[in-house]
Amino acid sequence: MPPICYLSRTEHFSAAHRLHSPYLSDEENRLLFGKCNNANGHGHNYVLETVVGGSIDKKTGMVANMEDLKRWISTAVLDVLDHRNLDVDIAYFKNRPSTVENLAVFIWIRLTQTVPAGLLQKIIVSETPKNKVIFAGEGLTKTELEECLL
Ligand SMILES: Nc1nc2c(c(=O)[nH]1)N=C([C@H](O)[C@H](O)COP(=O)(O)OP(=O)(O)OP(=O)(O)O)CN2
Ligand SMILES: [Zn+2]
């Protein structure tokens, strides 16, 4: 069996948002999200690490061509999220808070629609240098998959 490797690519995008849940009252939102619920909103310079993995192709010496990986991430994620207001521009966040967890789910689903089946292993989305979420597609429901379609 050929050796298995994991490739990682890090990209950045900037987006605005406000943490607010449609399932909570205004007062509950203020208490839960604090300054992040401020009506003016705020922005983050997000960092997305995408990890793909598989066996090394004998002929190319690659698990995947980094040029392809760059293109998949740009098309599926950066073109859609960079310099956007998540709550206003992305329908997925109309009925769920734009937490970094929900953002990771959105990004994962977008990537699975572009990256060849079985290659995508894990994503790590950082909202601030201190806060990051790791997602590998566990627990996805049909609802998320359908609502993620643009
Ligand atoms: N589980 C989650 N909790 C919080 C989220 C989130 O997406 N998921 N998001 C936020 C805020 O949007 C933001 O990430 C926090 O901003 P901030 O407090 O400014 O960032 P830091 O924690 O890095 O900075 P400190 O100065 O250390 O507070 C909040 N919670
Ligand atoms: Zn925020």
Automatic annotation (TrEMBL):
InterPro entries: 6-PTP_synth/QueD, 6-PTP_synth/QueD_sf, PTPS_Cys_AS. Gene3D superfamilies: 6-pyruvoyl tetrahydropterin synthase/QueD. Keywords: Lyase, Metal-binding, Tetrahydrobiopterin biosynthesis, Zinc. Its cofactor is Zn(2+). The keyword Signal does not apply. One of its GO terms (cellular component) is mitochondrion. Its EC number is 4.2.3.12. GO terms for biological process: tetrahydrobiopterin biosynthetic process. It comes from the Eukaryota. Pfam families: PTPS. One of its GO terms (molecular function) is metal ion binding. Pathway: Cofactor biosynthesis; tetrahydrobiopterin biosynthesis; tetrahydrobiopterin from 7,8-dihydroneopterin triphosphate: step 1/3. Belongs to the PTPS family. PANTHER family: 6-PYRUVOYL TETRAHYDROBIOPTERIN SYNTHASE (PTHR12589:SF7), PYRUVOYL TETRAHYDROBIOPTERIN SYNTHASE (PTHR12589). This is 6-pyruvoyltetrahydropterin synthase. It comes from Coemansia asiatica.
